[in-house]
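Today's session is about reading a structure prediction critically. Students often jump straight to the picture, but the first step is always the sequence itself: look for stretches that repeat, for charged clusters, for runs of hydrophobic residues. Only then move on to the predicted structure, which in these notes is written as discrete structure tokens rather than atom positions. Here is the chain we will use throughout the hour.
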Amino acid sequence: MIFSSKLIEDAVNEFAKLPGIGKKTALRMVLHLLKKDEADVDAFTGAISKMRHEIQFCKTCHNVADSEVCEICANRGRNHTQVCVVENIRDVIAIESTQQYNGLYHLLGGILSPLDGIGPDQLNITTLRERVEKNGVEELIMALSPTIEGDTTVYYLAKQMQGLPVQITTIARGIAFGGELEYADEMTLARSIAKRLPIENYVSISNK
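Below is the predicted structure for this chain, in token form.
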């Protein structure tokens, strides 16, 4: 792709670094911005820059936030005795879109995957146990993608919570094994949340 402007070329190259964006799509985006008023483009780039520089992570659940505590954790209208354990931010957005869940969340920041070098120390597991011990959490809902890695993580977390006065449930198998939670349709995900199961029905946590 040959450009008559180095400025256009640089802008296209930056857009093409985004996931799923090729050079042709990047060029269309840049040319679209070129037609917009300068004030609109400044607002666009300013919002992205402001987001990147000022975004924080909730000290309670590790979700993205505008301050130390995210809006979900700060909402007194939500059920603070119920915590849904998810892998990442996209899973929170997916579950919130169902409008079927009114508790809190805990973002692990990933799932156990020894082959990828991701062990317990790389995940937000210690803070999860602390929440259960100190914050009166009565139920942990394991809403991890139904994959081998997800199942392994659920098993590990269940073992870590043994001895604590908390009920552990999992979302129902409305989501196919091997699927990614964020790609589930809202109806299926809502049904999985509503029909969650006791952990004993999901994976054996007998002492070994």
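Discussion point for the tutorial: Confidence is low (pLDDT under 50) at residues 204-208.
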